[in-house]
Design a protein that fits this description.
homodimer; alpha+beta; seven-stranded mixed β-sheet; four-stranded mixed β-sheet; 14 strands; globular
């Protein structure tokens, strides 16, 4: 038998000297330096504007996957939720729930990845917390992050982005190709050797939102396409706007390896999660300005909002190349658990 | 076999229609009404002042215990962290990680308790997230909350509360009797039938902090006495202030049933967690004003800060009734895992 790998112990979560050792010696050196000791509550300096606040829990399996890991997702996912409110991500909090026995080397990699991704998003890690549960009572590590962002744009401060702002005739655009995060996780979990490998699209969304705002685009709605994919997002927006949202099947950007894997496994790319893609809803006269920003990154116009013909309820339709329209339903949720 | 109890399913976390059903039909009716649909990021209205930001994960076992439950703790614990920065708690985010099979009736009780406790703390639940992991991959439910508070007091805005502000001669006070949360959890976990039963002290701290500020008390430091108890808190403050903190053993308020249980089990009440108690450090000339607020709730003066005699390092001492002083060390952490 070899020497046991250093790992998280239950006592690391007990509030005593071992916990301080874990935090001060293992975790804190991975974070950017902060003046003074870590406190239970951090005082903030924020740019002027209206504040946005968001939270997400991350339980993705496996913890590390092609194109990302749970640490990177935990920083980027929450920063992206803020960007979807038109807010510049500024501050993150991090709550770690660790399973006894988690190798310390893996924990260090995940926390370093989280710290690097937070910096990439322009976020300070303001405050954190660490708990430890017994072996078999968690699954390696769960991370919950919350974020504070600032809506700086005066028009967005007055007219918040949201489904209720969507109008008939608005154009629907996506910011890049769809389904890669879902396929990357699926392949990692089931040992599929895809050639070429499909990497998660996990990436910060604020830079592209900022570029849209700077180009004069004033979104009616923004929505990141995570759990449930484009189909779930559109279903929510159809109900929130009381409109019919019609997608053009041929316009949807799905890369060949993703499409092939979906066909093989009987999956619908529009149900797959993304971690670096969003839907943009703009007035039709802003479509070209928006595309000028999105298209170089693989974004595309994908459809239109319209009034439902009575007595139709709000719904999402997919128009095929033959011009027929079929209903696009969200998955119930069994599809791919623990995708984020 | 009876009819299966309604329970959380894996698909409830998948981002599809079942997840929306769980959130809209089961969880949302338990929360105060909010205008419009739930968004990924909430826009905030906050009173003027300097912002404080805090987070904590909650993994307490059992999920329900005498005097509280994990939902109540998750709201109150994070609000209390804000109060310890002198901030009025205003907004909470809630991240739920649920285990497949968790009875829905229990989930409803815990979320209702969380919502009631948030209201008791004066906090809006601004945003939330729900994830589900497979049976055996979590332990019922883990909750992470983050909170935003506002430091309204101009003096505290300029001179933040913290260990570095502690001065030699400062008085140490506690806000109430010690150790009840730890004993309540211990008894619940090990089936001890204490007579009379010991209830957790889980309670919001901001009202008492506000009363202190209104009485003209300007704390040098505030610290809630959670994991690791008074001993761990003082150890951190001794190091953060580079001072020696001397407790008077006879002055420590510990109720008889707590003291008896500790003696029986060989525990030190000063190592036990509290969820509604804090340490207050004030200049000696404010001690009476502070006691006028704290004493009616069972608070007491418990000791003094002083300069260490060189070459002594900062440390915590316990002065016995005989006048001798002994070192008070924090526990390593094995004592009582998953206390919060």
């Amino acid at each position: 038998m070899g020497v046991a790998e250093p790992a998280v112990q239950l006592a690391h979560g007990g509030g005593g000297s071992l916990m301080r050792q874990l935090i001060e010696q293992e975790l804190r050196p991975l974070l950017p330096p902060e003046p003074g000791p870590l406190h239970d509550a951090a005082l903030l300096q924020l740019p002027p504007g209206r504040l946005a606040f968001s939270t997400d829990g991350y339980v993705v399996q496996p913890l590390e996957f092609p194109g990302g890991d749970i640490g990177r997702m935990a920083a980027i996912g929450t920063a992206n939720d803020l960007a979807m409110a038109g807010a510049r991500p500024c501050q993150l909090s991090v709550s770690l729930i660790l399973e006894e026995g988690l190798p310390l080397a893996l924990l260090r990699r995940l926390v370093a990845s989280l710290a690097a991704a937070a910096a990439e998003c322009g976020c300070r890690i303001a405050t954190g917390d660490t708990k430890v549960v017994e072996r078999g009572k968690a699954d390696g590590v769960f991370i919950s992050t919350s974020g504070i962002g600032v809506v700086e744009d005066p028009q967005l401060q007055r007219h918040p982005i949201g489904p209720a702002a969507i109008r008939p005739g608005d154009a629907l655009l996506v910011s890049g190709d769809l389904g890669r995060h879902g396929v990357a996780i699926l392949a990692a979990r089931h040992g599929l050797q895809l050639q070429p490998p499909v990497l998660s699209d996990c990436a910060p969304l604020w830079p592209m939102v900022q570029a849209l705002l700077q180009a004069g685009v004033r979104p009616h709605c923004l929505r990141d396409l995570t759990r449930g994919g484009l189909a779930a997002a559109l279903q929510e927006l159809a109900e929130g706007s009381a409109l019919e949202l019609v997608l053009e099947e041929q316009a949807l950007p799905v890369q060949e390896p993703v499409r092939r894997t979906c066909e093989l496994l009987g999956l619908e790319p529009l149900h797959l999660a993304n971690e670096g893609r969003f839907l943009l809803v703009v007035p039709a006269d802003q479509q070209q300005a928006a595309l000028a920003v999105l298209a170089p990154a693989g974004g595309a116009w994908v459809g239109t909002a319209r009034l439902p013909a009575p007595p139709q309820r709000p719904r999402v339709l997919l128009r095929t190349p033959l011009g027929t329209e079929r209903l696009l339903l969200p998955a119930t949720g069994e599809l791919l658990p623990r995708i984020c």
